[in-house]
Input
Amino acid sequence: MSVSLTPGQNHDLLNAAIEAADSCYAPYSEFPVGAAVLTASGEVITGANVENVSYGLTLCAERVAVLKAITEGHRKLVALAVWARKLPNGGITPCGACRQVMLEFMSPEAPILFMHPETGVIQSLPLGELLPVAFGFADHADH
Ligand code: THU
Output
């Protein structure tokens, strides 16, 4: 099953990610990233990367957005957009760790949006294509 948002929803979610990048804390990499998740109830919740002097403790924008949504009471997320200011036209896809965290609260069909690095066109890939053969328990989806 493929799930897609309307072009307007894609645009709005990616714009929210672009705006969110302004609130990053990225003094070490100077690589601002913004993310936005759409919840099952229709809310958009954003996040940005938060770095740490102990570099490995850095949190990506995608995880910040997902964790904010969860701690604000949401449990089902239906789409996520990510954007990075510095790559050509903002092209970026979520890192592997974020993909696994996203799969905890999103279905494999959930669209993950990012901008094509050369054209600036919004691309959409299902989470399951970004993280095939993912780890999970048999009853994982029931949580
Ligand atoms: N980063 C994200 O926020 N999301 C990604 O998908 C990849 C990388 C952040 C982590 C770090 O603050 C900076 O980008 C450079 O890796």
Summary: The domain at 7-116 is CATH 3.40.140.10 (Cytidine Deaminase; domain 2). Residues 7-20 form the longest helix (14 residues). The chain has one domain: 7-116. DSSP finds four helices and five strands in the chain.
